[in-house]
Amino acid sequence: MRWSQAFIPTLRDDPADAEAASHKLLVRGGFIRQLMAGVYSQLPLGLRVHAKIEGIIREELAKIGGQEFSLPSLLPSDILEKSGRIGVDVLFSLKDRHGATACLGFTHEEIFAWLARELRSYKQLPQIWFQFQTKFRDEERPKSGLLRVREFVMKDSYSFDATSEGLDYAFQQHFEAYRKIFERCGLDTLAVEASSGSMGGSESIEFMVETTAGEDWVVSCAACGYAANVEKATSLLGPISDEAGPEAPEKFATPGVHTIEEIAAFEGGAPADCQIKTLVYVVDDQLTLALLRGDHALVEQKLLDGTGATAARPAGADEIQGALGASAGSLGAVGVSDLRVVADPALTGRKNLVTGANEDGFHLRGVSMERDIRVDEWMDLREVTEGEACPLCEAELAVRKTAEVGHIFKLGTKYSEALGAQVLDKNGKQVPIIMGSYGIGVGRAMAAIVERWNDDNGIIWPVNVAPFEVVVTVVNPKDVESSEAGQRIYEQLLGDGIDVVLDDRDERPGVKFKDAELVGIPYRITVGPKGLANGKVEFFRRRGAEKRDVDVHKAADVVQNAVLEERR
RNA sequence: CGGGCCGUAGCGCAGCUUGGUAGCGCGCCUGAAUGGGGUUCAGGAGGUCGGGAGUUCGAAUCUCCCCGGCCCGACCA
């Protein structure tokens, strides 16, 4: 490719609406352009990177026996009705000319399970099927460029097994394949335990990349490697010994006091860790009190996971008033018998605590969990915070902001049962196929790579995913000797299968250097009259900005070796 | 879904308070010089001021409605 003929629309300024580094750089570098909120066009450079990431994924999935498919994006609604996912809020749906409802696929469990109906015998298993396909999700809030979008290409694979051991194996194979994929993409991932959410299934692992532009918090332990999404993470807490306290709770007036902090500061109150935080939630239509230690925060996903519910929302002011006769800020679970009460284990055995009296302007002190509160279920509900002790090794935990680039699920039989994908087992009995599903957002991975690999001058692509591996920059294209030398190096590299671009533009050298660095090409050979006078060209490595002169006749070999060494 | 901000040339912005027929920087085109880090000079092209309605002699500017985008929070398969 000659740069002078290429469509690489680089921009001097950051786009006004970009915040994340990857968003700014991918737009400025001429990789992507936004069409509408959360919808982007891939320009030639973007598509090159995209294709390289796909190539890596293909190779690794081939190693574990994956077979590539391409399923439709336009789906009939009845197939989603069978699995119950027709009501999913991110689903885009539309009507055809006959008035029938069709949907745009947001993932393809149903369709693959539908095809898996043609599997008849356990002897045909296991199978691993995958595709790269555009997914549509009507996200409430697209943001951060390619990190959170409404239309994106996802690699989704699905495993089909007759036994749960088979699923475990497929899951493990994917785990290892994902590790290699992300490593080859230049991404350090943290594999974390995650909540499976409404995907169903028993176990899931997310692959997270640390970045300030991410949206998920991950708890990790540097000492033993424990890592989990905050939705799932736990930690050890130091013991607290409470004074015995009074025989029975004592009501006291707390005019105008509504928050944990205010009670902590209130004369006759108690520090936050000696209070009970009472939250009222509507959990699958059931009014539920969730109790936490005053200084702890609720993780809604834990409430969902713990209760097995599919939806939870904070109760409204009138729902709270109707159920407890008081408003938020004066609530408590003492004496509550007609509502479900769930409590976090950090409250176990605690006594002499302060909580609301269910009467505006009053609280109770001397409350004992065991004696005064009827807890229906104890379940982990609290959010782990930085510095707490690792549940495995007791070292200090870190909490980091990350973006999810991959997710693997053990689905079980939810979709195979819903769609009737069964095989005969060894005993001649019909059994539902056991499925796993495994996703990687290709565009998101691309953005994550840029988040990780950039500096003030632009992107620093790892060779494996770089749009071009080498740029040959001709300093002065009007200098015939330079042009010819550049051309020769370019052609040699091309002939040797290196992804090379010849920057033959009639631009000032500074412009060409800046562009090459912004775009992030890992290696540059600079050909100019000064060097050629001594038979030299300049070799430049983008990462680390290493520069050295090399003999003009050896230049192509030198870069080629450097590139091949880094290709993995 | 709550809160905030923004839509004026390809990109980044000013002009709007106080209405008078649109401007700056970069980019782009032509020519010349220059050629190892966004060079310089001269000339030039490019805008239904997001859309619609209204007020007015006159609207980028004032009013109303609509559309779109960004950020924070909530949510997220």
Structure description:
By secondary structure, this protein is α+β, with helices and mostly antiparallel strands. It folds into 3 domains: 3-233 and 399-451, Bira Bifunctional Protein, Domain 2 (BirA Bifunctional Protein, domain 2); 250-378, YbaK/aminoacyl-tRNA synthetase-associated domain (YbaK protein, Alpha-Beta Complex), CATH 3.90.960; 468-566, Rossmann fold (3-Layer(aba) Sandwich). The chain is 26% helix and 29% strand. The strands form 8 sheets. Strands 3, 7, 8, 9, 10, 11, 12, 21 and 24 form a 9-stranded mixed beta sheet that branches. The longest helix has 21 residues, at 164-184. It is globular and about 95 Å long. The protein starts with 20 loop residues before the first helix and ends with a helix. The protein binds one RNA strand of 77 nucleotides through helix 13 and helix 14.
> Which structural class do the helices and strands define?
alpha+beta
What is the highest CATH level, the class of the largest domain? Alpha Beta
**Alpha carbon gap, first and last residue:** 23 Å
Beta-strand residue percentage = 25-35%
CATH superfamily of the largest domain: Bira Bifunctional Protein, Domain 2
Rounded to an integer in angstroms, the radius of gyration calculated over CA atoms is 29 Å
User: So how many helices?
Assistant: 15
Low-confidence stretches: none
Largest sheet: 9 strands, mixed
How many domains would you count in the coordinates? 3
| Overall average residue pLDDT | 93
Question: What is the helical fraction, as a range of percent?
Answer: 25-40%
**CATH topology assignment of the largest domain:** BirA Bifunctional Protein, domain 2
